[in-house]
Amino acid sequence: MLAMFMGNYLGIVIFIRDKFHPKVIVSDEFGRLIVVQICYEGRVLQLVGVYASNVSQEQKLLWRSLNSVLDNGRSKRRVYC
Known about the structure:
single chain; alpha+beta; 4-stranded mixed β-sheet; 1 helix; 20% helix; elongated
């Protein structure tokens, strides 16, 4: 799974074996956020990868978008990367 932006940012990578049936739930346009859903031991988990900017204004936008993403699935189990 890869969240990537062709520009100054390199993006985020989360390597997941196919046996966990990975599915990208969210990937932002700048390659700074990816949420992947997997099945592990009969449970549905969400893996959240975040690469925050050093620029204050960009950080605010990222955290706002992250909050809205995470609020949409409150019952899911999450692992933050």
